[in-house]
Amino acid sequence: MRNDYTEKQVLSIARECSEFEHLINAVNYGTSLLNISPASCQRRCPECLYWLNGTCDIFKKEIAAWR
Ligand code: SF4
């Protein structure tokens, strides 16, 4: 997994993405397993169900266009 994406990138791409689905809502793991509270949820790619360690096709397409 690349982890050198900036917060600006993961926030901006998620903000524009119609497919965003937050893990906490989609998987129903509950907040204790994810170690995040609903209040701290952010619309950012690494918190999306489709992120998959940075392999999301939409993300890859968007990040390629970013540069
Ligand atoms: S991880 Fe993929 S599907 Fe999820 S918000 Fe980012 S670009 Fe969209």
Mean pLDDT: 85
Q: Would you report the number of β strands?
A: 0
- Helices and strands, in N-to-C order? HHHH
Q: Number of helical segments?
A: 4
**What fraction of residues sit in β-strands?**
under 5%
Major pleated sheet: none
Structural class: mainly alpha
User: What small-molecule ligands were found?
Assistant: iron/sulfur cluster
Protein model, in words:
There is one protein chain. This protein has 67 residues and is mainly α. The chain has one domain (7-66). It has four helices and no strands. The longest helix is centred in the first third of the chain and has 10 residues, at 7-16. The radius of gyration is 12 Å and the shape is globular. The two termini are 19 Å apart. The mean pLDDT is 85. Bound molecules: iron/sulfur cluster. Residues 13-14, 17, 19-20, 45, 48, 50-51, 56, 58-59, 62 line the site of iron/sulfur cluster.
